[in-house]
Amino acid sequence: MPDSVSQWFRIYQFPGGRREFALSQLARLAEQQEWTELAQHAQAAVEHEQQLRDMQRTLVAARSRGADPRLSELDPAIDRTIGSIFRIAGESATTLAGTEDGERARVLLERVFPEGAVAITSMSYVEQSREVHSILGLLQGELSEQVAALGLGAFVSRLATLNAEFSEALDADPSPEVTRDQVRAAKATGQLNLVGALAMILGRHWRSTDEDVEARRTLLRPITTQNEAIRSYLRQRRSVQDVDPTTGQVQGGDEEEGEGEGQAPPVPSVPDEDEAAPT
User: Fold this and answer.
1) Phi and psi, residue 250, nearest 5°
2) What is the largest CA-CA distance in the chain?
3) How many CB atoms within 10 Å of residue 264?
4) Interval 198-252: pLDDT, tens
5) CA 46 distance to own-chain centroid
6) Cα–Cα distance for residue pair 244/237, rounded to 1 Å
7) From the centroid of its chain, how far is CA 174?
């Protein structure tokens, strides 16, 4: 997320349960302080985590039913191919700006990727297959001149082959209601919600006065407590265990639907009060 507010804050990647527990505590604190905007943000973030948990359960259930393995193999390949087309067109539009090929690239991006590549790759299997079919209609038809000029022909052909196989697998097994891409995108949104709460708190209580320092410590405590727990796990070279989102009790082990959670990226934590606040 190069343009995300997350780049300005130093905080570990929270597993879902820890994130939800911290946000639910923050929502109560904000209500007690009659900070309506923060309370509403935190509560909406909690509801997002609950929806994410349902998505994860649906994904696990689909796997247990024995979904066609071709879907999980083809989906990343389609995502990479879409990403390559988007990246090459984007670099061409920037590098060749002011030229005919730069204009061709700009038009292709505008027509095929108005909301970026992730908007496509994060769709459900069925939605993505339909969207790629529509995109191929443009790339192989109206925008074929742009494709040829930008050297994208091999990528478009590859995308067509992959999507045909993907559609065939979907017809054989229409069970996936939630995809890994959707879960991954929802997790990213959950972390951004957490960072958004940090931004709101530091935006209001940024001064070094006793009042702001105390308010900052109180409101940040639910988040810093979980952040320090994660730091402790990593210092001991242990996998980060998630917690029950209601009680905060450590769970016995990582659930399958966590898929990668519990592994925090090697970035610093929320700054202590003795450190300079992010600016």
Assistant:
1) -65, 135
2) 65
3) 19
4) 999 999 999 999 999 999 999 999 999 999 999 999 999 888 999 999 999 998 5
5) 16
6) 22
7) 25
Q: Looking up tokens 């999507």, which residue turns up? A: 163
pTM of this prediction exceeds 0.85: no
Torsion of CA 270, 271, 272, 275, to 10 degrees: 180
Q: What one-letter code names the amino acid at 212? A: D
Q: Residue 121 and residue 166: Cα distance in Å, rounded?
A: 13
Sequence-separated (6 or more) residues with CB below 8 Å from residue 234? 12, 240, 264, 266
Phi, psi torsion values for 198, nearest 5 degrees: -60, -45
